[in-house]
Structures are given as structure tokens and as C-alpha cells.
Amino acid sequence: MPPLAALESPRLDWQRDDTGEEAPRSADFDDVYFSRHDGRAETEHVFLGGNRLPERFASWRERRPFVIGETGFGTGLNMLCAWACFNAHAAAGARLHLVSTEKFPLDREDLARALAIWPDLARHAEALVAQWPEPVAGVHRLRLDRGVTLDLHFGDAAERLALLDGRVDAWFLDGFAPSKNPEMWQPELFEAMAARSRPGATFATFTCAGVVKRGLKAAGFAWRKVPGFGRKREMLAGEVAAPTEDARRDGTPWFTPPPARPSHRVAVIGAGIAGTSVAAALAERGVVVTLFDRECPGAGASGNAQGALYVKLAAETNHQSRVYLAGLLHSRRWLSRLDPGQSLWSPCGVLQLALNEKEQARQARFLERHPLPTGVVEGASVEQATERAGVDTEAPALDYPQAGWVRPRALCQRLAETPGIAFRQAEVIRLTAECDGWRLLLGDGTTLDVDQVVIATATLANGFPQTRTLPLQPVRGQVSRVRLAPDAPGLGRVVCAGGYVPPPLDGWLTFGATFLPNDADSGVRESDHLANLAELERTLPAYVAVLRDGGADLTPSGLEGRAGVRAASPDKSPYAGPVPDAEAWQEDYAELARDATRIPDIPGRHHDGLWISAAHGSRGLSSAPLCAELLASRICDEPLPLEQPLVDHLHPGRRLIRDLVQGKHGSAAAGVGNSS
Predict the structure, then answer these.
(1) Sign of the CA dihedral with 91 first, then 92, 97, and 102 last
(2) pLDDT-based confidence at residue 483 (cuts at 50, 70, 90)
(3) 232: part of which helix (H) or strand (E)?
């Protein structure tokens, strides 16, 4: 996968079209983004008409969304026209999923300027511009409207489609002309398109260049010439003759996802941030969800009044850092859409202080290896950190402008009220697989039959026979808070070091949290208050002195606190995916213990219709919403919001394979931590 870095924005020349409107032209490729004669009419003729979208939308009755793939987002005109066409022709309840690649994303201002030409697309353009992501390589999921999702895959088109986990019904084969941009129109692009196509998938493109016709034919597409638009006499349209097999699983057959199955009714067990975000993601897709918890939404480790939305990225690029950065950026867009008034969260930013030379060196290596946009993360000197925090920090930092803080308990309660979710305060004590779904036995002796089940119960997630091999470690964390005087100084950022302290909220300063592995006690302890006080003073000594001078009682007796028990995996990445059949894996892949290169050609067997989202640890606000989208997308047979290697990184069966390869047969079955 490519490094975590900022992508280049294109150099544009703005020219007047035939109507006097401004139109962008690429100075790098010496080509236009859309026809200067009538760009929208060209889009409707080439891509909508060439793929027969009006009639296909009108007849679409599948529960899954209709999926369009595009090789070159540009100004977004093609996708906005497809969205408008879908609104005009599709039946109520139908869904549309747009997937588009872009190597040189426009900046937000140029995007808005380019789309201002079409006033009747203003509502569509505003939704796109409002969520337009930073130019970071990877997948960026935007919810444009109820039932309309756009996944922007920033990076080289062939490379991004090779990493796509999903299938496409219709292709917009767009981009600058082959003569202007030959690097895009390569065999690898057509091969990736064919491998990501559903049976009968269509395509349309403005060009009839020989390299395109040869590439399409070699990849398995049947093409034909059809009338072009305007001055172009001909264009190409066609369909995939036979979708190619996905060879990406040759080396990891165990991660082969289970076949899609009906998902009209789903039970979600656990109403913390992991469970409520999954429930809301499913309900938004029209799934009837029953949400279970022994207490109430946000009662467990997600029950704090205030928590940090942050990440700590590794100095060397790894899959875990990619997941968490994607999760942070996703959570920011998700919260903006869910709560535009910011009653549940604040995008105030996070300063990650470097309090010693070792951390300063680590942060310097990170910045050197990850030239990300300053809108995502940048280095801050002592003076800059002090200015942004509003208090003397005495240390340099990494500044994450898109991070901030959230009210976790209130957020869980809001999500649990999503239309389509029925909350039941009950304990699920047994899961039994039935021929067409699952039967839940509740603590009061009643049962409920559903199509699928998602387990999101933190440290209790491996408490069912089907999940008992899943290693989970309980980690106790206690936060402390102190009442401040009305005139007490605040903070401009969340400040992190060994712990975190967000700006005061409702007259209280919250800080913490302790981190005690293998401790499942949720009682408030004076020793933890003392540890939190010591960490606060180590992080912001000048701020603590000011608060004390202002009368804040920063002693254990002057503090309130709350303790929760989080769950962690051995590698500190979440579990998000289908639950593997551990006994079947140990049988099917036993040969790995003798020779890790002898990989059986056997797809992984799973407990069909059983899923998990757990082990989010202390960074669940950054990981759980994205993992919820991942699970909901898989359950509802949609393209996934992460690249396939990152989806595999989160797979709950990864530890089973690692232990088999290392000859630790049975060690996973013993578990790590709670298994009750």
C-alpha cells in the first residue's frame, strides 16, 4: 500500500465555456474536466445513457444498493448527475452506492467553483463540498443523502481498484484522454475493473482509442461503438463477458468473507459506542434492529460524560495506523452529519505533547515519514502549542486539527434512538444457530429469532461458545474530574501525553485515564485519582498551578470519578468482521503449523450471520464508527469503506492463523482475559 501522505492538487486554468461560464482545465494534462460545450449533457449521454441507468434505476428492486464505479472523480459532475438521475427514477427505498478514484483531488474551493455552473445541482454539490475530505491516500466515505453513499478512493485508479473490497454494477470509465494521460489507461486498470464487476456489469467511456478497446477485451469486457456526444462521432459501451475470479485470496483463503445472506432483522448485543454505531448504521440501511444491553445505552466503558476523539499514529507506517487515521477522519465526517450543531462533540483539535527527548524524536520521525496535509496533522513548536492550547505547554507537539472531544454517553443514547432501532434492556445468555438465522435466549427465559447477530459487548464479547477462542484483555480505566470556578481558564485543545485533558465542559474539568490491564474492577479508587492528578501535573504544570490558585480542589477528596473496563486485543487493533469457526479453522489450516508456505485452498468457514465489533480499547471514538460501517456494508452486501488489506487486518480470526503458524495450537482457545 502507498505511504500515508498528502496527494497533489491539480494545477487549473479557468476558461469561459460557450455560455460564458467558467470551466476548469488541467494545466498538467492539457485537457478539460468536462466538455466546454455542455459538460452535463455529455455526462448524461456518455455515462448515464451508455450504462442505461434511467431504466435500470427504475427497475431496481434489490435490497442491496446499485453500485457505480468510476475511474476519475474530477469535479464530481458524473457522480452528481448519477445521483440526480437516481432520485428521478429509482423507487422509494432503493439505495445507490458510488465508488470513485482520484489521484489529484481538487481543493474544496476549486470543487465548489467548478460545480457552481449548474444551479439545479446546488443541493447535491453542497452536500459533497461540505464533506470533502483532506487529500490523503485511502478511502473516504461520504453519506450524501439518505440511501446515497459515496466512497472516494484517493490515489492511482488501478492501484485503488486493486484494493477495493466490493463489486460494481456499472462503470464510468472516465479520466483525461488516453493521449494526454497514458499512465491511467493501462492493462492493470481494466483487469481491476473486471475483477470488481458483478455479472452483467456494464461500462461506458467517451473514448474509442485502440489502447482502451484492446485493454477492455483482454480483461473480459465486450465492447461496441455507439454514437458519441457533440463533436465526438463515436464512444464505447459494453458489459463484462465473464467477471474474473478474485485471486487476492490465494494467499489468505481464511479471510474469504461468508456469502451474503438476508438481513431483514439483526440483533446487536451491547449498547456502548461499538454497538450503538453498528445498530445505527444498519438501521440507516432499512434493517430492523433490536439493540440489547444489560443496563442502558452508554452504561459501560462508553459511559463517560466527555472523552477524547484522537489517535496516536506509529512512527513507521503500519496497518493499525492506517485504520486509526481512516477512523479519525471518518468519525469527524460522521459526527458532522449526525450532529451539525455540535451539541455532542467539539472539533477543537488535539495536541499530542512530546514531554521528553524520546517522544520528540519519535514525532520527528513520524513527520519525516508521513508528509500528511496540515489539516490532518502537523508539528507544533512549544510556542505554537502554547498558543493553540491557550496555556503554557512547555513542550512541542503534534497537532491534529480534525480531532477533539465527544460526549460518549450522550452519543450512545442519541444513536440508540435512531429510527428502526428497538432497545431492550436484557441479557443475552445464549446464541443458537438455526437453519435460517439465530435464536437468542434472554435472561428472562424468552427468545428472539433474527437473521443475523452482531456482538459488541467489550470484555464480554468472548462469553459465547462461538467466540470463546477470541483473546480479549480487560483494561481498567478511571477518569477524574474537578469542579471549576466560573472564571477559571479553559483550554483551546484537548491535550494528550500519558493521559488526556479536554477543555472544561459544563463547569467540570475531566482528565485521565488510568490504564490497568487485566483489572476488571469498575469501582472508583483514590489511587487512580492520585495517578490522574500526577499525570495532569506532569502534562500541564503551569495550568494546574493556575487552577489551584483559582481555588480548584485538586486533591483526591475534591474529585469525582468514573471507572470503566475496556477491552483490548493482543495486537491492540479492534476486531471487526465475521466470527470464524475456530474448530474448522484449526482443522482446515493445520498444515500451517508444519509449513506456513503450504496454504490449503479452502475458504475460511465462519459462523454464518454472526459478527463482532470489539477490542476498541481507549480509542473507540475513532475506530468504532468506521468498524460499524464496515460490518453494515458487509452484512448489506456493499463495497467496504476500507482497503482489503485493512479489512483483513481487523478480521477476528487473525490471531487463530498467527497461532497456527507459530505452532501455538490451542493457545487462542485459552483466551486472554475474560471468557465468561
Answers:
(1) positive
(2) very high
(3) none
Spatial distance between the Cα atoms of 409 and 182, rounded to a whole number of angstroms: 52
Residue 333 in grid coordinates = 465526517
**Beta bridge pairs of residue 149:** 97, 143
Q: What is the pLDDT of residues 551-609, one digit of tens each?
A: 999 999 999 999 999 999 999 999 999 999 999 999 999 999 999 999 999 999 999 99
Angstrom CA distances, 435 to 439, 450, 607, 609, stand at 10, 11, 12, 11
Task: Report how far residue 393's alpha carbon sits from residue 387's, in angstroms, rounded to the nearest whole number.
Answer: 9
Q: How far apart are CA 662 and CA 655, in angstroms?
A: 10
Looking from the CA of 598 toward its CB, the CA atoms found within 13 Å total 8
34 burial level (CB within 10 Å; 0-12, 13-18, 19+): buried
Name the pLDDT band for 181 (thresholds 50, 70, 90).
confident
Give the side-chain half-sphere CA count within 13 A for 283: 20
The greatest distance separating any two alpha carbons of the chain, rounded to the nearest whole angstrom, comes to 82
CA distances from 228 to 44, 78, 232, 236, 630 (A): 11, 16, 5, 8, 39
Amino acid at 117: I
Q: Is the dihedral of CA 482, 486, 487, 492 positive or negative?
A: positive
Cβ atoms of 282 and 434 closer than 8 Å = no
pLDDT digits (tens, 9 = 90+) for 76-85: 999 999 999 9
Sequence ranges of the domains in the chain = 12-245, 253-300+410-472+570-670, 347-400+474-565
**Contact at 8 Å (CB) between 64 and 166?**
no
Looking at 52-177, list the stretches that DSSP marks H as alpha helix, in order from N- to C-terminal side: 53-58, 77-89, 108-115, 122-131, 157-163
Could you give phi then psi for residue 391, rounded to 5 degrees?
-145, 165
Predicted confidence (pLDDT) per residue in 93-149, tens digit: 999 999 999 999 999 999 999 999 889 899 999 999 999 999 999 999 999 999 999
pLDDT digits (tens, 9 = 90+) for 278-337: 999 999 999 999 999 999 999 988 999 999 999 999 999 899 999 999 999 999 999 999
Q: Where are the beta strands (DSSP E) in 527-605?
A: 560-568, 575-580
3-state secondary structure of 643: coil
CATH superfamily of 12-245: Vaccinia Virus protein VP39 (3.40.50.150)
Amino acid occupying residue 579: V
Which three-class secondary structure state does DSSP give residue 243? coil
Give 148 or 243, the one with higher predicted confidence.
148
Among the listed residues 188, 132, 127, 129, the one whose alpha carbon sits nearest the alpha carbon of residue 158: 188
DSSP 503: P
Taken in order 567, 572, 576, 577, the sign of the CA dihedral is negative
- To the question of domain 253-300+410-472+570-670 being in CATH 3.50.50.60, the answer is yes
* Measured distance CA(418)–CA(437) in Å, rounded: 24
Contact 305, 511 (CB under 8 A): no
Superfamily of domain 347-400+474-565: D-Amino Acid Oxidase, subunit A, domain 2 (3.30.9.10)
Residue bearing cell 487493533: 573
- Using one digit for the tens of pLDDT, what is the confidence trace for 251-269? 899 999 999 988 899 999 9
CA distance 434 to 167: 29
